[in-house]
Predict the 3D structure of the following.
Amino acid sequence: MKTRFPLGLLLFLGVAALAARAQESFDAFTERVAADWVRVRPQFATQAQYFSGAEQDALDRQFVATDPVGLPFDPAARQATLALARKIRSELAAFDRAQLTPAQRISAGVIESGVRRVLKLAPLADHFFSFQQFYGVHVTAVNFLTQQHPVRNRRDIENYLVRLQRVAPQLDLAIAATRAQGEHGLLLPRFILVAVQGQLDRFLAPEPAKNVFVTSLDERAAKLADLSTAERAAFVASAEKIVRDSAGPAFGRLRALIVAQIARANDDAGLWRLPKGAEVYAAALRANTTTNLTADEIHAIGLREVARIEGEMDHLLRGLGYAEGTVQARFDQVNDRAKPPADPDPRPAQIAEYTRILRDAERRSEALFDLRPRAPIEVRREPPFTEKNAAAHYSPPAPDGSLPGIFWAPLPTPNSDSIWTGVGMRSVTYHEGVPGHHFQIALQQELPEIPRFRRQGVFGGSNAYTEGWGLYAEKIAAEAGWYDGDPLGRLGQLNAELFRARRLVVDTGLHAKHWTRQQAIDYGIQPSEVERYVAIPGQACSYKIGELEILRLRAKAQDALGPKFSLKGFHNVVLRTANVPLDVLGQAIDDWIAATK
């Protein structure tokens, strides 16, 4: 007897089958294009250990320098990367997103945002600068090889030497591009170029045998049990020869170009000084905040937040007996009184205190978070090469467990104002470590339900999400009472929040309102920070804009769910969604609200 099914059921089953095939096809698509995107970025492939066997080994021997947009300097490689971005965008557009699961729609948004950013910024790439003091090619090359290229065995050292040999030709491509920029009047401000020259002078000062490319290899190779003393000495000698004959001279050529450009540059700070400056800054704001907020709108938000936070600080300062002078002047008095003497060297004690705060934060976080990373985190001092110009920052754990998450603390000279975090030690630890970047970034790597390409940030991410979460982590610590009984720590937290609000005012002031470097300093921002905003336009705006959006989404969920709202549940959604553009995060929260209702 033949079974008959209603036509409606047959149609339903057919549609369901098509949807299932579309989902499977989409997952296969994401795996394929993610792998293609990694293959054109060999340093990323090494950091992520994305492949295995011969393919990974081949990528571990490549070194490709890229501009601030993320495009190679080599013309053929540049065109191939842009062609790949257009191909991915076209294939992605062919999927009907209504047929995808919510998680797949998030993945589609992440891929779309990543390739769109490259394609939108590529025509403006010559207005961004490849040799600035924070993420310049000369900095990233040194940091990658000395800190991130693995040295686990003899083959890793062989690959290191191949890569080190490739630094000079890649640096020369970047030098040529920067020279062409200068010939068209596109120059960094003089004070940025002077900072870069200082970095290059410090790099070139030691003899080749004492160069960081050589000494770091020697130190790491010494830890390999299966490497004889003679083999280690031979590898180190090879590195020294490459530095003497190839890498060192290339850095010298870069220094010569920077010196020549210093003579032609002036101290105008903002992008307004360049042709297309307003267009470039608008694009930088969109890329960094993942919003359509204009410079004027962000400037106004900053002024409003500055006024609110200064009001809270004024109340606390008066309670501590500081009633006279500006909020900043009174805070500085409090901070200066907490400063340790220069002798004995306070830096070991500072690292120890950062570590104590970190461990305490891990314990306190249990009450606020269901999700906590398995990977450990530790505090390390920023390497001397970049320490003078560095800000505190976080680097993620290696997926294979060979490196923990690291909170890097710059401590260049004892008692220096530029490194004294003071009463803000807790807030910076919460931001860079727990529950800030370590929770967000390390968890992103560990959660099995997140596709691998998103766990490892193959298509980049939203700086507004990452830094917004870091600033939200500072805020949630205050909301949860972590500063109870510690008014100085609370002042440090508010001062850190004030700093991010001032960034909105200063970044937009510099690049859209013709502020000078000195105006920005006078507004309450340290010179090294002002120079960071000049060198990386729009990035400083991502922190506060991202935090405000996360707080807005939390309030929206609280209003919509009432007693069903769970703070841990909200944190679960934000962290499980992982690093996404802010509009994609908003969609994830809307889906959670609907499901919870």
Notes: The chain has 25 helices and three strands. Residues 282-336+423-596 form one domain. The radius of gyration is 25 Å. Residues 12-17 have pLDDT under 50 and may be disordered.
